[in-house]
Amino acid sequence: MQAIFDSYSSLDVPVVKEASKHNLFLIGGTAIQLWARYYGVKERRARSINDLDFLIEARNKRGLEAFKEFLEDSGFVEEGSASDEDYTLFFKNTHDEVEVDILRTYERITDVAEVKGVKTIDPVKLFIFKLQRLTSGDQTKSVTDIQDLNTLYDVIEKRGNITELEDAISIEVPYCSEEQLNEWLNE
After folding, report:
1. C-alpha closest to that of 20 among 70, 76, 59, 58
2. How far is it, in rounded angstroms, from Cα 94 to Cα 73?
3. pLDDT tens-digit profile of 135-153?
4. Of 103, 78, 80, nearest to 19 (Cα)?
C-alpha cells in the first residue's frame, strides 16, 4: 500500500498530524501529492524533500502557539524574528533537514477538507492558489506550478468538480485567459 505522501524524515508524518490537530491546513506539494494519491491520479512531480507548508487563520493563536511548541520540542528553530504581523513563519530542523513554513491569513479559511486524518485545503482552492501565482508574474516556480495545476485538474475532474473550478476561476482569477490556462494544462 502506497503512503499518503512521501516521507523523507522521521518528522514529516508527526509534523503533519500535529498541524492538523491544531487546525493548520497542509498546502503546497505535499497536499497535492496527498490528493493525487487519494484519488489515484498521476503525480506530475515529486514533492520537495524537506519542505512542509501550512496555512493557518491568524486568529488561531492558541493553535499556532501549541504547534510552535511541538516544533520546538522536536528540534525546530524559528528562523528570523517573527511578529504578530508576519504573514509567513519559517522553522527549520537542521538535524533532520526539514523546513516548515506557516502562512498566516487574516481571511477565514473555508475551503477545507480532511484526507486520511490530514487537514488540508480543497483541491479547487489549491488550484486557484497556483493559478494566482502563475498569473501574478511570479515565475520563480512556474515549472512546478504548471505540473501541480495538471495534477490538481485530474483530481478535480475525478471528484466531478470541473464546474466548481470554472466558477472559481471566473471569480478569483478572471484575468486568466482560457487560452493561457489550456496551454498550461496541456503541458
Report:
1. 70
2. 14
3. 887 676 788 999 999 999 9
4. 103
